[in-house]
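Dear Dr. H.,

I hope your travels went smoothly. While you were away I took the liberty of generating a structure for the chain from your last submission, since the lab meeting agenda had it listed for discussion. I wanted you to have the full record in hand beforehand rather than looking at slides cold. The sequence, exactly as received, is reproduced here:
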Amino acid sequence: MLSNRRKFLKRSMIGASALAVGSSMPPLNANALGFATPLADDLARPDGMPADMTKPVKVYILMGQSNMLEMGRVAGDQDGTLEHAVKTEGLYPFLIDDEGNWTTRADVRNVAVMGSGGPGKTQVRKNDWLKVAGGKIGVEIGIGNHMGQFHDEPVLILKSAIGNRSLGWDLLPPGSPSYEFTDPRDGKTYVYAGYGDSPDRWEKGTQPERIGWQAGLQYDGDIARAKEVLADLETYYPGAVGYEIAGFFWWQGDKDRYNAGHAIKYEENLVRLFASLREDFSAPEAKMVIATLGQTDRDAAEGNEKSIIDAMFAVSDADRYPELAGDIATVYTHPLSMGSSSNAHYGGNAKTYMNVGLAMGEAMVELNRADG
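The corresponding predicted structure, in token form, is as follows:
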């Protein structure tokens, strides 16, 4: 028998799917609602079997800033660690075998690369089968388990991200124009950088003086580093016979919330980001899942945080962007987060990273199912 939350998810996705084919039913946008407990009850323990290696690899690219990295603590028998969550609280049972050892997915590779700024300077941080390893975990564990179970094809979780980066400046996608905005802190009007411009802003009527960074530099670098992995696929997925970019996962927004000039453009920049990712990876059918900042209560948000969370909900609203209906979903993480806020990495609470990863993975599965 379906749980109430699974019934609601199925009903909501049916509503969104019907709208996409012309129904007058308003979308309920299930993926933007979030749940007190992520939908992990249908995840089985990995069976240790490889994927069907005659098929191309399904690639999912993870981007954002520091909370897209691994910040959830693993070891220790205290609240907030993964060991405590699994072995004491009984959560996420698919992560351990009968002997209490961490399970490994032999059908999902977990690759993470990092570098500051533009192309080059690539650090390969992870290149292994998906499993709990090392002192910290991120959302890739929940995402990877969902995608591995959903697909018969081999799956590659490819993370290309670094901390302390804003969408309005460092990760600004190609084609983003410059614009004017009056900063409420000093009442002055500034020109904010478009893609390739430098510095990030300058007072209207003055000449900008370039610095050693430009708008979109981190975007260019993160894309290039992900492409390096794909160009050498055998190193990262031995035996692969090709790949398909199936989707993108985005968890970001913390840095933009400190800059009103960036926060007001978050919606516009998200839409352009999705289009740019599809174009840069030649993946016009790829889906996208966005997660909100965990501390932001949608009903109580103000100022920059309200601008950002409203933007995240807007891009998956089929009434606002009918051309994106069925292609993009928003996960509301406030009910799923614990520990603290995004700027403190949720206190390293592993349950936050598991909960958000599971919810993002479930949202991507539902997008794929709705697409047939």
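Two observations you may find useful: The chain has a mean pLDDT of 90. The chain has two domains: 4-169+217-370, 177-214.

With kind regards,
E. W.
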